[in-house]
Amino acid sequence: MAAPVCVLLSALVMFAEANYGADLAWKKTAILQGEYWRLLTGHWLHLGWVHWAMNQLGLMLILWLFPQLLIKGRWVTGVVVIGLGVAGGLMFTELDGYVGMSGVLYGLVFYGCMIDNTLPFKIKCLVLAGVISKVVVEQLWPEVNAATAEQIGGMVAIDAHLFGSLSGFALGGLAWFKQHRTEAAPKPVT
Prior knowledge:
Largest sheet: 2 strands, antiparallel
Shape: globular
CATH topology: Rhomboid-like fold
Organism: Litoribrevibacter albus
Number of strands: 2
GO molecular function: serine-type endopeptidase activity
Mean pLDDT: 89
Transmembrane segments: 45-66, 73-92
Radius of gyration: 17 Å
CATH architecture: Up-down Bundle
Number of domains: 1
Order of helices and strands: HEHHHHEHHHH
Helix content: over 70%
Strand content: under 5%
Structural class: mainly alpha
């Protein structure tokens, strides 16, 4: 249910983008002037339908890989917290405008790996190694995203991937710590 809701919401925003996109996109100067909704709404906008489709397929793959994200609205928590982490991190870069969900998706991979116990540990390590490798490579050699930039019709915001990964790791770490602290707590004697 979560993936279709997310896809539908994102599609509705895409249709509204022609009229309201300028008012919803992450834009540093506007945020600094008090338009704080842009910290979250910019993640729902995209450069075009190809960009949108890539992000929605990524979201569906993540929710399929990590089904425990669907329990108790964890995916909503992830999207909001990681989205704020990405948006906040981008405030410290030279970037002035941003749209897209890829930073949030990178974070959801980290969060999912840390809270979901349905995937074998070795598979989760491989997934994380792949994501970490991609983030490192694109930070060192941004030109590796040239083909993707051409497909989506704009620059790939590699710092969004970095801040999303860091935010997802932090959120996942907190959730993991809370879960394991609860499991390790002594049981009362009755």
